[in-house]
Here is the input.
Amino acid sequence: MRQTLIVSTRGQITLPADIRKQFGIKSGEPVIIEDRNGELVLKPATVMEVEMYSPEQVAEWDEQDRLSDAQRKAVLNRLSKRAAKVAKKRS
Here is the structure.
């Protein structure tokens, strides 16, 4: 679908109602415009809330996820066995 839009003196364009409806663009919602090899591409944007975590929260999660020496040894053992299998298949 191709439509001609007029740019206002303030650099604004009005998206036709049928286009807004087709793409679910509502008043006040963000859109993305990008230059794609000399063409302007306009598409709906999704805004996601970003949660910020304190250094204390991150440190707590790191501590909870820390492997014991036995767990670390078991993981490294499995990885070395897998690497040996891959190396054997390649030779």
User: Anything to note?
Assistant: The domain at 1-48 is CATH 2.10.260.10 (Pemi-like Protein 1; Chain: D). The first helix runs from residue 17 to 23.
